Amino acid sequence: MVMRSPVAARLWLAGLAGLCLLLAGCGWGRDRTAVLEEELARAGAYLDALNFRFALPIYAAVYRELPVEDSHWLEAAFGYANCLWHVAPPSRQNINRAIEVFERIAAEAPGTDWAAAARLSLARIEMLRNFPGDQENPAGAIPILERLLDEAEGPIRHEAMLRLAECHRMDFDNPESLRTARALLTGWLERYPDNPLASVMWEQVGLLDLLSFNDPAGALAALMQAEAIGFGDPGRKGQLLWRMAVLGEQTGRMDLAVRYYQKLILEVPASGRAYEAQQALQRIRDTVPGMEAIEVPDLHLLGGPST
What we know:
The protein is mainly α. It has helices at about 5-25, 30-50, 50-65, 75-85, 90-110, 115-125, 140-150, 155-170, 175-190, 200-210, 215-230, 235-250, 255-265, 275-285.
């Protein structure tokens, strides 16, 4: 939701002015808590819509005016830092300010989910190029993530492990770092096989096996684990099924190659690989002994198959 109309912009500015007056003690008799919650909800809606430019000044006004002890401060602080991090155009000044606010959240609310989320954000900032001229710094993220593994609970702890493995994987020219990444993931999956990021972790193990360790059988086994759970990103399902089918052929598991080519056609017909999967099945049926009776599903798309 990006507000481009002059009317919408004027309404937004009027609301922001009213919020500032309220925080300054001129609230025209309105209940201060109700207005704060209303404005934070409005900022949250902008944030959910990735409209950081409109959310930023609302969060900033609340963050600057409320005392830390106020129950709304942490929400405002996290929203403010998140907007500073993502608002366009990116700048070193905004990123440095976001780091300051995330660090303050972690210091003011130790042991809370807000602090854990702030530390995870600090690690992600280190891992990414956030503005022109910035550099990735996975080594700077590693101690933050290791601390999270010791202190955090719930989903953030599992994401910290995923990101820690990613930090080691980013050092892709170092075989020892890649082995460390794989060991971290497989060790975590052994301890927490049902964690909410298990599928994504298995995908990462599979890609490490395939691209870094030249182990197509291991890659296929890991991707099959991810598929059994349900791929973490449904938008990548077609790509992953294609990769699994090709790995099935490469490892001599023609039964698996056929299964995943068929699943690709039937479950992701709009994939750019669906037509190629049909051709692959026809080739297998015509050239591989014992495969003469395999089914080649039709593509059911308006306008014909994807190419």
